[in-house]
UniProtKB/TrEMBL annotation:
InterPro entries: Epimerase_deHydtase, Lipid_A_modif_metabolic_enz, NAD(P)-bd_dom_sf. This is NAD-dependent epimerase/dehydratase family protein. Gene3D superfamilies: NAD(P)-binding Rossmann-like Domain. Residues 5-227 form the NAD-dependent epimerase/dehydratase domain.
Amino acid sequence: MSRVVLVTGVSDDFAARCARALASLPATTVIGVDLVPPRRPLDAVTFVRADIRSPVMTGLITGRGVDTVVHLPRRGPGRSRAAAKELAVLGSMQLLAACQRAPGFRSLVLPSSGEVYGSSPRDPAVFAEDRGHDGGPRSPFAQDCLEVESYARALGQRRDDVTVTILRMAPLMGAGVRSDLTRYLTAPVVPTVAGFDARLQFLHPADGARAVTTAVERCRPGIYNVGAPDVVVLSQLLAWLGRPSVPVPRAVARALRRTRSRTGLVVPEDLDGVTWGRVMDVRRIADELGFQTHWSSRQAAEEFVALASPGVLRRVLDGRGAEEGNEDG
């Protein structure tokens, strides 16, 4: 049986990777949609330049016989909060309304984020999918993800013939990954919250794309955590990168985040995540969908470190090692 899959946001590298992986599946036609042309070739994916907020999406989904939509809400880096929310939340709402009106539509796969769990000293060491939301502080991005998830679940309730699969992904990590977190990790000097050493769980983009293709193939409803089963602590990762860290009180870190343009110091939007850390239980997706990552968190981090520009501490150590080698010679 043939399948027609529509993937949104394909100008983003990860969305484009997902679209290419889906196009490699047998009897699968993939349509990639975005307002901006993709930066890299999409191979067998058909690109359509369109705005998911536009009424034309209903005609596109119906006219092309789309039965599956993989929706990757855009963060809109560098945009104002209002513009980012319109792009991610209102765009998602309008896209899902178009899906609801399409009679042949049968499946939605929504890659979301583990940030929706928040992070605090009251939380468990590992988050399971049935963990409730305690209303604690969350980043604006996490709040947007929760709102988009609620729209996706509502679609499944209104259309009982539609399968809704939500993938709560750990932060992407690997060669060339650009995100709020990687910008923080590769700053010349990294402010950390004094007294804390966050446990970090990662997902390699190749594994993320495999998780999406698995969700499309298996077509099982529910929420699934996606990430490598191991963790890396923040101080360990900064040491590999050679970035000097400056421990500051949490209140100071929050202030630095607001004054980044004046101080030049980078503090991530998800400050809670690099304070207390966040680790997800990934057994459900293994048990129910048969998915396991190929890359560990450590391997994904090591790949990122290998291609990142060396920090000052790495340059000092490398230079010292070269000098010692010359003396030995």
